[in-house]
Specification:
CATH class: Mainly Alpha
Structural class: mainly alpha
Shape: elongated
Oligomer: single chain
Strand order of the largest sheet: 1-2
Number of domains: 1
CATH architecture: Up-down Bundle
Largest sheet: 2 strands, antiparallel
CATH topology: Butyryl-CoA Dehydrogenase, subunit A, domain 3
Strand content: under 5%
Number of helices: 4
Order of helices and strands: HEEHHH
Helix content: over 70%
Length: 133
């Protein structure tokens, strides 16, 4: 009924928020890797950092399609909407959690400080994961 439609819409919106937050955290991590210098070079030149950023991006990009399909099902395939909304919310909030943790790790100590905004995204990821179940 109407209550389930509202829950489905909420899950899809949380999934969208998680995707946007994940994308922003990845952008912050890439920008930081391109500017932070260690041992005479930017940390983005190190293979381990490149792999970490690539893994974050490879995990995030397919998630957009997952979210889009959930939104499509909500509008056009009602009998699949509940399942796809729940899966999109669960999947994207899980990615959001991992991307914010990886971005924080990449930033090192500054990622935990109040002077840098990454902690806000980290807290938002925790909220999104628990909201709407």
């Amino acid at each position: 009924g109407a209550l389930q439609r509202a829950i489905d819409a909420g899950c899809i919106l949380i999934a969208a928020d998680a995707f946007g937050g994940s994308r922003r955290c990845l952008e912050m991590a890439v920008n930081y890797a391109q500017t932070r210098e260690q041992f005479g070079q930017v940390i983005g030149a190190f293979q381990a950092v490149k792999h970490q950023l690539a893994n974050m991006a490879c995990e995030l990009e397919p998630a957009l399609s997952f979210w889009w399909y959930a939104a499509h099902a909500y509008d056009h395939i009602r009998h699949q909407a509940e399942r796809h909304a729940a899966m999109a919310k669960a999947y994207l909030t899980d990615i959001y959690d991992r991307v914010t943790r990886d971005a924080t790790e990449l930033h090192g100590g500054i990622g935990f400080t109040w002077e840098f905004d990454l902690h806000l995204w980290f807290r938002r990821a925790i909220f999104d994961r628990g909201f709407w179940g």
